[in-house]
Design a protein that fits this description.
Chain lengths: 473, 447
């Protein structure tokens, strides 16, 4: 006899959600957590007061009271939050939280972050940048630091650099605590913090101070599209021996890319060194579950990212042809294309959409769909690298945590449940799939040769040709 | 799976196109459907389930409830996979099986005939006729309906008691804990899951339970569930007379094969549906696999009743081959080989893997145990005669399935295994490695 209770089962599991927990009385916030929030709140108030233009504005004291309090309050908050839990994966309630599951708060966060980019790119006067005279408003709040590090008054770009770097450092603290059971995550988080602070913020600003050509030392063409364009080379070659060093550095990184990727996979750059990756892995981590892992998204991704790569290659080649022929071939056209690429890809795509949409599309929108550097690294990783994610025998139980928390939208489970290793162009090697796996099925590793990764990978050219057909998994 | 594999050579088309019906879309049913499609590109395959429209991962139920994933994230495949594979999914319950007529009656939608049938109906939570077990607020944790029920039962609940110290019990405790409800585990044995885990491992799990703030009552048995006066559970009383307040009572004392459908037929059953080593039942053209199947063993050997995820998948793949085989002639169908035993679990933050044979409480088996002095990490190597390694228990560490399987199948001795232990480590990069310490400590523990 069939149990009548079974037959009475009648609901739509797709619509059900099983979710919103009934309202349970929350325990009162402990005093130290209240103090963290108080510090954050006080910082925000001081900041608003300074934007309005008080005596504190543009002083070290003002900076410490506003940005200092905000950064410290937020860091301590995260520290305290995770210190109160046992070490391990803490993802409870993520899909019930409005800010993390595309709810109203998520949309608000997206609009706010997108709005910041819009102001920085198009409305610098609103932020207080001025072409003739000292900065005011928000830009002025970081002026003392700008004077110290660059020797110039603060600009919107300096403000952006400070915000960007602070976000990586503060949310880096969060990563340290959230993953305090995992050395891999701690080390790679420390790495992106160091590269952002030193290579992408401090050193480039010191270059400005010493009147040298500007360069971010962890930037590589084609992500930093102009680092091997004729104009930049003009700057380098016009700056003496140090300029030559910068030029060698820029070219050296392009050359080093395939070699490092052969040994370590794409991750050496994307989740250890890169500034965009650094922000995605820290500030963006709370939203990683929003990356679409459908086959359709994968198809769109491949078309888009390789189109951007083709575009940057075309622009670079045409600029050099133009330069060598002094404009005889393309005339002013290549300059126009350069502007177009810089604006639509470099600014709108990587910034406004890439970061602004973290709370809506996940934290790797730019890296997945746009970054030409990721495209190149991906091609090397897919066809000529030792890196892979190993699946531990037949132990996958198909729960889906790996696919859900993959920021690159890779359907990791589809491989793991077939006991296949994962070799995918887009994998940035963040290692979260391995961490969230409740059965310890996944492990990132560098094989002893690229040939032991999967069948056929010792013939990269064949694999590449085969992949040109639309593959059906 | 690639489409190329689906094009089978002409020669296998000797048999006419058949209609195979699979009852149940759990891991066994779903694995069988996919494998059968590979083997028989032109057969008609229908998979029936009343629980969900698409196969999903039942071990992931807890993650849906605690908000790590949404239900749709736990589906085994994208929805488009099933029509692409031409596997028809029917959302209904089968309520009657007419085996000789090869006909099923469905609850919502009429009748269905089949040429071959797979029973993959799974199992049901055990209930031991406890007084009060039918009160509201008393439930098991098996499928989506239980998840919905639990969600409703959580309304207004503050405390819960979970009866049974196994894998599901601790999952249920974690789920309730995430909703601010205080759970207490009621365990009959002197340590957690000690009918499976040796004492050291069980104690380690006990510590994880404590650290999470979950109650644990060892050597306690349920006597009665007490009505709160409204037809809902309000408390439980143990056999020792202790009373614990509980608005939710979880019953997780194991599962038994679901025989609801076959109970009214002539198909032979004992604990489960009896099958031979090709997973064929006593009825013509009907197979059974997974939790509901009991595999006959020759001679003194006890019949095989395997009810874990991995064996469900293995049996599902095997039964597909058996169903696809042309005839019952000897050698035509494959026979089920459970292979190396392995299993894994996660107790709160603590991961656990087991390979081979590790008996709880020693039971005539020598074994060596290492544990980290402060961290929740332990490793057991169980031994058979002549220092041959018989199995591994790994707690708070990850080990490589392939390496363990190879060592166990090659019958490697303790010395060899200790010398090469590092090769089996599967922990993430940069994690500290303790294999040298383990080897030294285990060697030191031997006479």
């Amino acid at each position: 006899m069939i149990d009548p209770r079974t037959l009475a089962y009648d609901f739509d599991e797709e619509a059900e959600g099983f979710g919103e927990p009934p309202r349970v009385e929350r325990p009162r916030l402990p005093l130290d957590q209240k103090l963290c929030l108080g510090l954050l709140g006080a910082g925000l108030l001081t900041l608003v007061a300074q934007i309005g233009g008080t005596a504190l504005s543009g002083t070290w004291g003002g900076m410490a009271l506003s940005w200092g309090s905000i950064a410290l309050g937020t860091s301590l908050w995260f520290w305290r939050l995770y210190a109160g839990t046992t070490p391990g994966i803490k993802h409870d309630g993520i899909w019930f939280r409005s800010a993390l599951s595309r709810g109203a708060l998520g949309w608000l966060a997206g609009i706010f972050m997108t709005g910041m980019y819009v102001l920085i790119y198009w409305f610098p006067q609103v932020l207080g940048e001025s072409a003739d005279g000292p900065p005011t408003g928000l830009v002025a709040t970081v002026d003392p630091l700008a004077q110290l590090v660059t020797g110039y008054p603060a600009s919107r770009w300096f403000l952006y650099g400070v915000l960007y770097t602070t976000a990586i450092l503060v949310f880096g603290v969060r990563m340290f605590m959230k993953y305090r059971h995992s050395r891999y995550h701690q080390i790679r988080t420390a790495s992106v913090m160091v590269f952002q602070f030193g290579f992408a913020w401090l050193l480039p600003n010191l270059l400005v101070l010493f009147q040298k050509p500007y360069m971010e030392f962890n930037g590589i063409w084609p992500l930093k599209q102009n680092y091997i364009w004729p104009e930049k080379w003009g700057e380098f070659t016009g700056a003496g021996a140090f300029g030559l060093f910068l030029l060698v550095w820029a070219v050296g990184l392009v050359v080093a890319t395939p070699i490092l990727t052969y040994f370590f996979g794409k991750r050496w750059y994307c989740s250890w060194v890169c500034g965009c990756g650094g922000l995605a892995e820290t500030l963006g981590d709370p939203w990683r579950q929003l990356s679409d892992n459908s086959t359709r998204a994968w198809k769109i991704e491949r078309w888009m990212i390789h189109s951007v790569l083709a575009a940057v290659l075309a622009v670079t080649v045409s600029l050099w042809i133009d330069y060598k022929t002094t404009g005889a071939v393309y005339g002013s056209w290549s300059g126009g294309v350069r502007q177009w690429y810089g604006f639509y890809i470099g600014a709108v795509f990587s910034g406004v959409v890439g970061v602004g949409f973290y709370p809506l599309l996940g934290n790797r929108v730019w890296c997945r769909f746009g970054c030409p550097q990721a495209a190149i690294l991906g091609i090397w990783q897919r066809f000529y690298s030792r890196f892979r994610i190993t699946t531990n025998g037949d132990q996958c139980m198909s729960c889906g945590n790996c696919s859900t928390y993959c920021e690159m939208g890779i359907d990791v489970r589809s491989y793991a449940q077939k006991s296949e290793n994962i070799v995918r162009a887009s994998c940035v090697g963040c290692g979260v799939c391995a961490s969230v796996c409740p059965r310890g099925v996944l492990k990132l590793e560098n094989g002893s040769t690229h040939a032991d990764r999967y069948e056929g990978s010792d013939r990269p050219l064949d694999a590449f040709v085969k992949s040109l057909g639309i593959r059906d998994r | 799976m690639r489409r190329a594999q689906l094009r089978s050579p002409r020669t296998t088309h000797a048999i006419q196109t058949l209609h195979v019906v699979i009852l149940g879309n759990g891991i066994t049913g779903a694995s069988a459907a996919v494998r059968l499609r590979e083997l028989r590109p032109d057969w008609q395959i229908t998979m029936i389930s009343g629980e969900s429209a698409h196969p999903y991962s039942r071990p992931a139920l807890m993650y849906v409830f605690i908000g790590h994933m949404r239900y749709q994230d736990t589906k085994l495949q994208e929805d488009s996979f099933w029509p692409k594979q031409r596997i028809d999914l029917v959302r209904d319950w089968a309520v009657e099986l007419d085996a000789p007529a090869k006909r099923l009656r469905l609850h919502r939608g009429g009748e269905l005939t089949f040429d071959r049938l797979l029973l993959a109906t799974g199992s049901k939570p055990n209930r031991f006729d406890w007084p009060g077990q039918d009160l509201r607020g008393v439930q098991g944790l098996y499928g989506l309906m239980d998840l919905k029920l639990l969600h409703d039962n959580c309304e207004g609940a503050r405390q819960a008691v979970i009866v049974g110290g196994g894998l599901i019990g601790i999952e249920l405790a974690e789920m309730l804990h995430s909703r601010g409800i205080h759970p207490t585990l009621l365990v009959r044995e002197p340590a957690y899951w000690s009918n499976v885990l040796p004492e050291d491992e069980a104690r380690m799990v006990g510590r994880a339970i404590d650290a999470a703030g979950i109650g644990l009552r060892l050597e306690s048995e349920l006597a009665e569930i007490v009505d709160d006066g409204t037809g809902r559970a309000g408390a439980i009383v143990t056999k020792a007379g202790e009373r614990l307040e509980a608005q939710i009572v979880g019953l997780t004392a194991g599962v038994s094969p679901n025989l609801d459908l076959v109970g009214d037929t002539q198909i032979e059953c004992e604990r489960g549906v009896l099958v031979d080593d090709g997973l064929r039942t006593s009825a013509e053209d009907i197979w059974a696999a997974g939790d509901c199947a009991e595999i006959r063993r020759e001679g003194d050997e006890r019949n095989l009743l395997q009810q874990v995820w991995y064996t469900g998948r293995l049996q599902g793949r095997l039964v597909a081959e058996s169903i696809a085989a042309d005839s019952r002639a000897a050698g035509a169908a494959p026979s089920y080989d459970p292979g190396l035993w392995y299993n894994s679990a996660k107790f709160l933050d603590l991961e656990y893997q087991t390979y081979g044979e590790v008996r709880p409480g020693g039971r005539g088996q020598e074994s060596l145990w290492w544990q980290h002095e402060s961290r929740q990490m332990g490793m057991r190597i169980a031994l058979a005669e002549g220092d041959r390694v018989a199995g591994f228990n790994v707690v708070g560490l990850r080990y490589r399935h392939e390496v363990c399987r190879r060592w166990l199948s090659e019958g490697r001795g303790l010395d060899y295994v200790l010398d090469h232990l590092g090769e089996a480590n599967f922990d993430p990069e940069f994690e500290p490695r303790f294999e040298p310490t383990m080897a030294t400590s285990m060697r030191g523990a031997r006479p």
